[in-house]
Design goal:
2 copies of one chain form a homodimer.
Chain A lengths: L1 E4 L4 H10 L4 E4 L14 H17 L8 E11 L5 E2 L12 H10 L8 E12 L5 E11 L15 E3 L11 H7 L1 H12 L1
Parallel strand pairs in A: 1-2, 1-3
Antiparallel strand pairs in A: 3-4, 3-5, 5-6, 6-7
Helix pairs in contact in A: 4-5
Chain lengths: 192, 192
């Protein structure tokens, strides 16, 4: 099975390669246009990305794929009223990830609860079929400072419930078993 | 005391007139530029609006004000991962408010918890002084359909904790006593 992944994020590509064994993933080409995401919800954005990518791909006469998969995900922090949430990729754009992580921690009000969750919504557009979405989330808390070099994005900040290490410190197997993206990917495989 | 309100929202102006007795509120002029809001958090947006408005006003040589007040607020729905949150004003732009309210309700997953909160962050830039912020929130739940013509925005959807009526049905006095904006305004008055 061959799937076009509507993302230029190398971290997402690497994770889906592990999470979707037996699937040939086609990454979004360097020469393709940027994929828009301006929805107010993860689900909107995932659907917007998948349908945009599907339409563009179909117009290229490129190698056929069995469908297009898009991922919209983010970190929702209770003390920041659910932010950066759907704006996770857009927060502090231009900063390197470590600086972005430290900037996010600096926004936390003193003494506030550090509870947070990672959310992932996948949108799937099969060739000739209708779009569907699958979601996953994981509860946890923000660490006091970034820890670990594993994963990507806000992973060094996030301590999943029941653990003491961050997603940046836990290996990929442990992360995938717990993570928002792992859960959404398993829901997608079960729904295929 | 004369305060420039960095908002064109008639509902906000009306509420601040009730919430800030004795203050002469100057509304944002029709001929003034649109006030940008592209932050990832309520606090960013409130500060961005207040500093933008303060700089523009200072360049006009218009009637002096004692300071500029901006309000960034929104509805955070747990089942929508805190959305529309900071994107509350941008969600379904172009739709009339009642259609927007119904569209939001239609996004609720079946059987999901309906808990939500309204959040308000005020940014205050006094003449010649540094910016400060004040915030307020109110917990509640989404009604099954819009009810009541009071208030504005998502008020017809929101049932505050401990009540059975929506902010659209409760009168302004009850709303102001409970609301996110009422709490933030009282924190502002106490901090002045």
């Amino acid at each position: 099975m061959r799937i076009l992944l509507a993302s230029r994020n190398a971290g997402k590509l690497r994770e889906f390669e592990a999470l979707l064994p037996g699937v040939e993933l086609v990454p979004w080409p360097a020469e393709a246009p940027d994929i828009p995401e301006d929805g107010a919800f993860f689900q909107d954005n995932a659907l917007q990305k998948a349908t945009f990518a599907q339409a563009w791909w179909a117009g290229q006469g490129a190698v056929p794929v069995d469908g297009v998969l898009a991922d919209d995900s983010g970190l929702c922090v209770d003390a920041l009223w659910g932010g950066p949430g759907v704006l996770s990729a857009r927060f502090a754009q231009g900063l390197a990830q470590d600086a972005k992580n430290r900037k996010l921690l600096a926004l936390m009000p003193e003494g506030a609860a550090r509870t947070a969750r990672f959310v992932c919504v996948l949108a799937w557009v099969p060739r000739g079929g209708a779009a569907r979405t699958f979601s996953g989330s994981v509860e946890g808390a923000l660490a006091l400072e970034p820890r670990g070099a594993g994963g990507f994005g806000y992973d060094p900040l996030f301590v999943p419930e029941g653990h003491a290490a961050t997603f940046g410190e836990l290996g990929p197997e442990v992360k995938h078993a717990l993570s928002h993206r792992g859960r959404a990917a398993r829901a997608f495989l079960a729904g295929l």
